[in-house]
Every structure is written in C-alpha cells, then in structure tokens.
Amino acid sequence: MDTTRLIIVAVGGQGNLLASKVLAEAALIADIPVRMSEIHGMAQRGGVVESAVVFGDARSTIISDGEADVLVGFEPSETLRAINKCNANTIVITNISPLPPFTVAIGKGVYPDLGELQKLIKAKTAKLIAFDAVALAKKAGNVMSLNMVLLGALVQTGTLPLSGESVKEAIRSATKESFQTVNLTAFDLGFAAAQNA
Amino acid sequence: MHKLLTDQPGQKMMLLGNEAIARGAIEAGVAIAATYPGTPSSEISLNLFQVARESDLYFEYSINEKVALEVTAAAANAGVRSLCIMKHVGVNVAADALMTLAYVGVKAGLVIISADDPYMFSSQNEQDNRYYGKLSGLPIVEPSSVEEVKDLVPYAFDLSEKLNEPVILRTTTRINHSSGIVSLGKIKPRITTGSFNKDPFNYVTVPAVSRKLHIKLLQNFEKAAGLSDASPYNFTQGRGRWGIICNGVSYNYASDAVTDLNIADRIRILRIGFSHPMPAAMVKTFLKDCEKVLIIEEGEPYMEEAVKALAQEANLTLPIRGKGKDLFSRLFEFNPADVRKCIAAYFGVPFTAKAKPDLTDVPEIPARPPNLCAGCSHRATFYAVRKAAEGRDTIYPTDIGCYTLGFLPPLSMGDFLICMGSSIGTSCGFSKATNQKVISYIGDSTFFHAGIPGLVNAVFNNHNFTLVILDNGTTAMTGHQPHPGVDMSQMNMNGYQQVSIENIVRAVGVKHVSVIRPYQVKKSIEAVKAALDHQGVSVVISKEACVLHRKSLKKTVDKPFYVSDKCKNHRNCINDLACPAFYIDKNRVKINPDQCVGCAVCAQICPENAILPLKRSKA
Questions:
Q1: How many other β-carbons are positioned within 10 Å of the β-carbon of residue B193?
Q2: Phi, psi for B46 (deg, rounded to 5)
Q3: What are the pLDDT digits (tens) for B20-40?
Q4: Do B39 and A108 touch (CB under 8 A)?
Q5: Chain B contacts of A120, Cβ < 8 Å?
Q6: B493-516 pLDDT, tens per residue?
Q7: Residue closest to A66 by CA, chosen among B345, B359, B256
Q8: Would you say B451 and B485 are in contact if contact means Cβ atoms under 8 Å apart?
Q9: Facing residues of B246 across strands?
Q10: B180–A contact, CB cutoff 8 A
C-alpha cells in the first residue's frame, strides 16, 4: 500500500506523543501497517518533541527532509522550524497560539510574526490549515486536549488512511476514562475547524 | 496487569522498541534483570521494574553497570536466565567484568543489552559497541526493527545457552525509540532459583585457569562462527548482481531505497543481524554472486573491514565500498533519503528526489534548547555557588545529569566533563595542576555510580577542592529511577535500605562537610563560602527534591509568585537565574503562574523585594 508520512512537532508537555500513539493504535485497529519514531530525550526540560508516523509498506521509521506528506505543528514557531521536512505537496496543519521559547524572554531571539509565518508556510506547501487550537481545547474543557483538537483537524483533511471512527475508537482506548468526553469533544471541534478553514 | 505480561500468543500490540525488548525478555523466561538507567535504554528497565512488582521476576536498579553485570553474571552461572541492560557507554563501565566473564562464560542464558546512540541524542559520545564483540570474543546480535527485536531477545538467550557465553544484543536509538506492531509470543515459565555448582578451576580466574579458559573462548568462537553462518538473522534477499550488505536500521533505509529507485531486480541484499562473528561463508558466497558491493552501516566501518578481509581470503577483487568521501559517513545517524542518494550514486541509478523547500526567506527561529525546569533546585545551588565564588578564578568540573545543563549561560556552571564520575577525578587533577579554585558538581545518583572512589582518592591524596553534591533524591535525567540514597517507601516499596550520602562523605574522612537547602539563598551562599575557604577537600550537599519528581509523586508544589508594581526592571531575576517561568510582556518581567512552583529564589534576590507570593484570589 502507498506510504503516507506524517511529522508531528510540539514542545515538551503538549501531548505530542499521546497524539501519535492514538494514530498508531487507530492504524492497528484498522489493520494498516504503521511504524513510528520519536525524539524525546529532554522533552520534559522544555525541548522540542518530534514524532514521525509512517503509514503503509515502508520500513523506515524516520522521515527525511522534504519527504513529509503531512506536518502537524502544535506550536507555530515549531511548525515553521519543521518546514524543512515539507515539499510543495505537503499539507500543513498548525495551531497558531504561540508558546515562545525562553530564549525570547531573555532577548536571545525574536519570535516570528504570526501573519508572516503563515504566509511563508502557505507559499512553500500545498495547503495550510491554521487556527487557534488552544482556544478550542479550552472550549472542549481542558487545555491539555490541544493534541486531540489537532488530531481532529488532521483526520478531516483525509490525508491519512484512517477513518474518523477508528481514530475515535483509539482515543477511547488510549486515553484515561475521565478525559474521554473532553478528548472526543476536542477532536470534533478540531475536525470542524479544519472543515471551515 | 502490566500489558507486557499479557498471555495471549498471537495478539498484536503497538510497542515501543524498548517495550518490545522487555516483552522479548519476558517471553524468554528471564528471571533476574539488572541495570543502571541510561537513555536510550531506560524504558526497558522501567517496564521490567513495573513487571517485577506484579510477578516473580527479580529486577534491580544496580549502583552502576559493572555491578549490574556482576549481579547477572552470578545469577546466570547459578542457572537462572538473566538480562543486563545498559547504554553504550555503560558497557565501558562494565568492561572489566565483561572481558573476563567472556572467559568464564555462563550456565543459563545471559543477554547484555547495549543501547548505542548514533548522533548522540542523549550521550557524550557515539562509540560503536560492535567492537566490544571483537574485543571480548562474545557474540553480537542486532535487530533492524521493533518487530524483530522482540523475537531476537529469546533467540539471544538460546544462543547464549548453546555457547555457554553471554550474548550482546546491540540496539541503536532508532530501534529503542521507534514503535511498531508486535505479535505476542508464548511466555516461557520463569525459573527463578538455581543452584551454584562449585568448580573453582573453571571459575576462579587465576592465570593458570584463565589460560585454559582463553582456549575455551576461542573454541567457542569457532562454534559461534558456524552458528552465525546458519543464523536466520543473517539472510540474503534478491538475485541481482549489485550487492548491498547492511545491518540495523540501515536495512530499512536500503529496502525503501530499492523500492523508490525501482531496482529490485538488480539488487541483492545481505542483512546482517548476527554481526559477531560475521557469517564468513555466507559473505563469501554473497560476494561471488556480485559485481560490486556497497556496505551500509551507521557508525564505524565494522562490517566493511570484515567483508574486505573475507574478500581477500576468497581471492575476490570486486569493488567493495562503504565509508568514504561521497559515500557513507562515520558520523551521526543515517536517514532514508541520504541512503537512497548513496545507493543511486554508487550503482549509477538516475533519481530525482522531491524538491526541498527554499528556506532562504525563512527568518531565524528562536532556539528552544532544553533548560533546567522552573524552580529546579540545581539552579538555586548554581546561583549560591556563583555568588559565594565571586572574585575567585574558578574551574567547574561537572558531571552527567540534568545539572549538566547548568553549563549554559547565564549560569555557566560547567567547564569540563568526560564521563560518569569525572567531576571528582578531574577535580583532583585540576587542583594539582593549577592555582585556580576548583568547584565541582555531581548528582546523587552519579555520586553512587562512580563518584565515591574519586572522593576517597581526593581525601587520601589531600587534594584541594570543593565538591557540591546535588542531591535531588532521584535519578532525574533518565526518568526518576531510584538509587541507593532514595527513600523507597515514598514509592510504596518495602524491603530496601537507604544509604546516606552525608554518612559516606563523613566516613571517608572529608573534614569540611555542610548540608544546605538551596532555596534558602543567603544561608546557602554563606555555607558555600565557608566550604571554599577550607584548605583540602570540602563537600557541600545540596538537598532539595526534584520538582518534576515531586509533581509526579503528586506532592503539592508551593504557591506561585508574581512580580508586583514595586519592580524597577533591574531584571536580576531573569538575567541571573534564567528560570523558564519568567517572560517579558510589554517590557516588564512577568511570572507564568502555571510554571512557577514557588521556590522563592527569585523573590530572595530581587533588590526591590518586588516578587511576592500570589494570593489565592489572584490565582
């Protein structure tokens, strides 16, 4: 089967690893070959967490520069930083609520302008879906459901060989019961946001 | 029940590579496991630690890798299947035990996991531990995928018992930290108790015994060579005349490249999964069927050297290339696109990769380096030491742990680091070779691992430096594993004793010992000053729980602070501490209440006393 390559970038603590785990579980449920890898060495200390999810028959678990079919960014400057993974056919989904790195606070860098950032990504890729996923996560009932909002948007694009139902089933099996209602609401809100984008 | 104990053969499960290794060990009937935590191996141990709490598996966090290997070597020689887990540099620590254990061998299976780290995602070097196979004479097996490693672990145990030798299973970070769908196998019943049969003329390695044992090791090596040639983990694929010899994750990248380049009919792949000894007969047969060969391996040209030597033995002169300019690097990790590019170039296959985006107009994105957590006690200690040492010409040898991050500005507390425990040994050397004031840092777990001999050396030889032991009550960096100084009752675990760092330091004869609570800024600075004034070895033990660990144990953190209107924008707080809870908003320093844990260090250094606890109504 054709290979679909997905990169998810986030800041430590944003729930990136759970998001990729949900997708992998959904693929397992749907009997779709899936492999993934993650770099999370110092994630808890505020670093960047990147995961690669490869659906289909490829054996590699990592994705080279220029070879992602989809990029999901949980933090806008991290989405832009990962643009090297994209090509002209890549679909990009990003949250636009920033989490500036500490280097900005101590004057060792300037946070990119959000409008300019979106323009740049749009110009270099096939499609950009950008919205305030933090606001939607809060609306769903918990800011920690940001990852599920973005999963909803990702599934809406139809780029993954996964149905919304199988992803929802994976959300039910992979997340704590007390968070399930919030997570599923967040997923639906993200799905709707991508539809309207 | 722990998911890795699921007794449903055939069930498919999504597992992290390290979970698959732990599951493989469980399926192999491992009864004793020991480790010292180290990324990328840490989750193997974490899972076995959890499994041991609900089964008769014995698991221990040993004080270091050498002891872990000794524990498992004895268990295996008493007839109990054992697993020893460490990161690649941990094998250096265990090497003294390893080299002679190879002579002695084992009775029941012993598998040693060496988790190598190409690119050094979380390590001080990227040494290629396949050379430990050559150095010790022990067999090495290597997986290419998560699915494969689950089955490779039981294979390694069987191999170990066939040869009566420990077997090294070498992974790389991309195996440990990748996930894949694994099909569960049967769980072999654990045999948890064995019996040691005395045989001193084969076990006590005095020279006369070792001479005999070395002969046995070389005989075993011959047997291992035959097993390598017959191993299902060394296999050939395809019938083309262009040969690729590869191992580990390189096999995945090569396979994908062959598909992408559409050259399956021209390629023949030899995948090496049993890499020491190399399958000599298999390699020679493979070479005879090829016009030219490319060797794809991360790290050193280990297979390349072996294959070229085998070609010479077989009188073959075909081109064999691997490392070199325009081909593969000895540096870092490979990736699918670079492997594809090298294959296309070497065999002359045209291929145009997808155009990478033009990044020339992308502005510089502010870096997001890892940082000590908000309220981390190490930051408080570093601040106190910096203040106490003001005006002195200092050297700060540091060690391995979260606190290594203190070498970054503005803390700048770290000048030299080579390995676990090196802070103390190098302090001895710096204090003899210079007139600078030497102040070194070591964490609690690292102190137990490799710090104590250095400290005894310092006392005996009367060196002159101050050692700061950063005691946060856990092995924080690798995910909060316990160590001998930890009170295990806080994890609801019984049957452990607690070893006091302060008692050790006093017992080895350090004359000037002080214990500080680093959140008490003034008192800490005074105590450090007194320690710096002492001639000889002085030790400051800085005790404060790891903030992350405290949160994970569900202990409450203190009320957050805020910057009040009294602030005159001196910015000592943000400039001297660089705590990530600070941010600048409209040119004013603010504190993010979601990040602040109320350590109050910034409040104590603010010249205007402008930083105050947040009242509940404001929270």
A1: 12
A2: -55, -45
A3: 999 999 999 999 999 999 999
A4: no
A5: 361-362
A6: 999 999 999 999 999 999 999 999
A7: B359
A8: no
A9: B271, B296
A10: yes
